[in-house]
Write a structure and sequence with these properties.
Blueprint: H1 19-37, E1 43-45, H2 57-65, E2 70-76, E3 88-90, H3 98-111
Parallel strand pairs: 1-2, 2-3
Helix pairs in contact: 1-2
Length: 112
Amino acid sequence: GMQIGAHTVTHPILAKLESNDVRKEISGSKQFLESILEEEISLFAYPNGKPNLDFQIRDTTIVKELGFKAAVTTAWGIGKTDSDLMQLPRFTPWDKTCFLFGARLIKNTLQS
């Protein structure tokens, strides 16, 4: 019921790095986790995750080229069938009860 995804090696703001350094940060994290878990790592989370501020389109291309199937941002929202799999939105699920979590899910779905 749970899957581990990669992030980066040192948590840099990818938009501030050169392409080669972006690739090293992301692939290094993926390779390290795969060596520990002995399974493919197919999900990625952008450090800080704000589109066009913390990462760029160039970075989404690198993520895809490295074999990730999807990547999450910190842009608020819920993923839909037409969402870009390399820039999935999300929201924080840190509610104190199952009822509040359910209410948040309904609210987010209605607002999307």
